[in-house]
Amino acid sequence: MVLNAKNQIQRRPAIAHGIVGFVLFGASDAFAQKIEASVKGDKMITRTSKKGSTEETSGQPSCINFSMDHFDIIRFLSAGTVGAFFGGCVYPFAYKRLDLIWKGKDVISIAKKSLLEVFTVGIFANSVSMGARGLLTGKNPIEVLSHVWEEMRDVTFNDLRVWFPYNVLAFGFIPISIRPATTSLMESAWQTYISLRSNAYETNHTQA
Questions:
Q1: Are strands 54-56 and 46-48 parallel, antiparallel or unpaired?
Q2: Which residues contact 158 (CB under 8 A, 6 or more apart)?
Q3: Domain tally for the chain?
Q4: What is the pLDDT of residues 111-159, one digit of tens each?
Q5: Which residue segment(s) compose the domain that 183 sits in?
Q6: CA distances from 78 to 56, 71, 99, 192 (A)
Q7: DSSP character for 63?
Q8: Helices marked H in the chain — which ranges?
């Protein structure tokens, strides 16, 4: 089964990786929506004090039931579309290009490729992903641009902490033919974080 999947990827790489990207990015956004719904649920929970008054409680996300009433299908499809684009087009091209620039698997070449990926593909992918999500869900372009600008410093710092170790592993050991798929798998976790930051407009507005 694994061999057959690998053969399909090799025959139709763009389509195969695009589908993987759509599914993984969409799933990560669905998970992010569940987290957000849980946090909002916690903030709405009230408890009665001894005096009979109520007060808002805060704390860790609760395990409230997540129904379709909480699910934003447009946001989900937007995330999936972004994933199909990056999984099918951007990642295969970027990793192949970096391998051509610095051939070999010596420590110096791997380190250079890993750092360059973070500060080129990483920044590009994160900014486009966050911007596209906002625009595709109908937000004002100026608001989207401002939000992405505010978020990018912390996002880039976290990108370096997460993706540099993975890049070392990818460039050093993972075959090129399946690297976009493993990258999309990493992205499914990373994009949960990006989805949360992409849709934190209300939080940033409150802090401002």
A1: antiparallel
A2: 193
A3: 1
A4: 988 898 888 888 988 998 899 888 888 889 999 999 999 999 999 999 9
A5: 2-207
A6: 33, 13, 30, 13
A7: -
A8: 2-11, 13-44, 73-85, 91-101, 107-117, 123-136, 141-173, 179-198, 201-207
